[in-house]
Amino acid sequence: MLDTTVTDETQTFLDTFGAALEAGDIAAAKEMFQEDCYWRDLVTFTWNIKTVEGKDQVEDMLKHQLSTTKPRNWKIAEDEMPTEDGGITTAWISFETDVARGYGLIRLKDGKIWTLLTTMAELKGHEEPAGFARPLGAKHGAGKARMTWKEELEKEASELGYDTQPYCLIIGGGQGGIALGARLRQLGVPTIIVEKNERPGDSWRNRYKSLCLHDPVWYDHLPYMKFPDTWPVFAPKDKIGDWLEMYTKVMELNYWTRTTAKSAEYDAASGEWTVVVDRDGEEVVLKPKQLVMATGMSGKKRMPDFPGMDKFKGVQQHSSEHDGPDQWSGKKVVVVGSNNSAHDICAALWEHDADVTMVQRSSTHIVRSDTLMEIGLGDLYSERAVKSGMTTEKADLIFASLPYAILHEFQIPAYAAMKEQDKDFYDGLEKAGFWLDWGDDDSGLFMKYLRRGSGYYIDVGASQLIIDGEVKLKRGQVVELDETGVILDDGTHLDADLVVYATGYNSMNGWVADLMGQDMADKLGKVWGLGSDTTKDPGPWEGEQRNMWKPTQVPNLWMHGGNLHQSRHYSQFLALQLKARMEGLPTPVYGLQEVHHLS
């Protein structure tokens, strides 16, 4: 009876809300929100990825977008039932606009909207060919000189980029470019992905030998094709590389390997890019309408410039170039850095009998993998979640439904519980001299990742080596190198045959500077971060990831990246934005982000 009552009350609320919107009564709709409210929209209303915060921002967005969006048919989603817990009613919802069908999640507090997530599920008349609409494949009947499936694919591959131009060009063929390419393929958007490496997946294969995913398998599926039930929880890098290579083939992507983009210029008059690429020694000029940089937020290496680096007689490598531990047995290695890559590399070097020292220059957040899976991810991304009926798609939307402005409030108690559960572990690290932190506001790993993309390690074993003194630890700043090693600010000299700089990566707009010039990179501005005014994430508050998966200040230029989860989830919304533009649909953007920081 209670469930029926909650369902009826929720549908009545949606009916009233929908009627106000259809009538253009923005004042009435505004009053259905809490004072402290958040509406996160993924494309449907704003043609942007945008969160409006507070009733006044809701009102402003509706004043700009309601007349063109024309939302209607608000319902509790099919086969779903609202729930009530602690005074909060939560419901999956569906709705439609003039051009799209939407899906979302609403939370009601005291009979008014506290949080609202609206997402574009599909464009009307441009649905993906799936389910009952899946392609037949076979060609029944008979026809003269008709081509086979293989011949059609080969013809397309030979013509696209030469006889015909792609609508979209994706630069970068890692998981981001591949996921987006798959989405665009299903939407019928002619697309080429260019990748400098020999094979799809090489961006993983070419990393340091011991690299494995630190995120669990349930968090890392690609669109359309989930990992098998027998796939390991934490996949080794080469296994991921092989999966990506297979995926590009079976998803029929136009994927150009051994191809490097040399230059890109945009012609505002024609709305067209001119991109010059070197395809295995052949210069090819491409003329796409849309250009996507999927070069990875962990791709533009940040190499320090310490005095004396030119004097050092040993080998120096950035972590992205580290060739593995094999040849360093019995040698002295200094690893500058204390985040994920630094820990992984130190552990692998120790396993191969190197004498390895980690130099920690700033505090690091550490969380044990098992504890993170149990407390941080278990409700959404785990076998337990799957058994309870949680799907990847639902998990993604639940996570997306928590506005960034208040996400830290949900994270703080989770990380407090992890800290308490693993107290002995942290005591051991601090006794060893390790400099720990929990984020600027104790909100832990996810907020650090979203704000700055760095500053943490998911422990899969290296921390115990530090606790036990097997991996040596020195805290301090590198002041210079000499012929034989690294000198710290306390005067310590660390002898080294190899120095690995696990010093992270620069903003993705560095790739734009390389390809289009610094002026274009400055017009785009900094990529990543929320404007939280915390370490390495300067304000003002943005409320969303800067310049990711949405329109930018550079027309027809898009940035796409992040981890496997983000590549999967946000590729849907970027693909729909690109498809709508290809089809000439009106896409009035609300809330285009201003540029506050250049890098």
From TrEMBL:
GO terms for molecular function: flavin adenine dinucleotide binding; monooxygenase activity. It comes from the Bacteria. Keywords: Oxidoreductase. SUPFAM superfamilies: FAD/NAD(P)-binding domain (SSF51905), NTF2-like (SSF54427). Residues 18-114 form the SnoaL-like domain. It holds the Pfam family Pyr_redox_3. The keyword Oxidoreductase applies. InterPro entries: Auxin_biosynth/cation_transpt, FAD/NAD-bd_sf, NTF2-like_dom_sf, SnoaL-like. This is Putative flavoprotein involved in K+ transport. It comes from Litoreibacter ponti. The lineage of its organism: Bacteria, Pseudomonadati, Pseudomonadota, Alphaproteobacteria, Rhodobacterales.
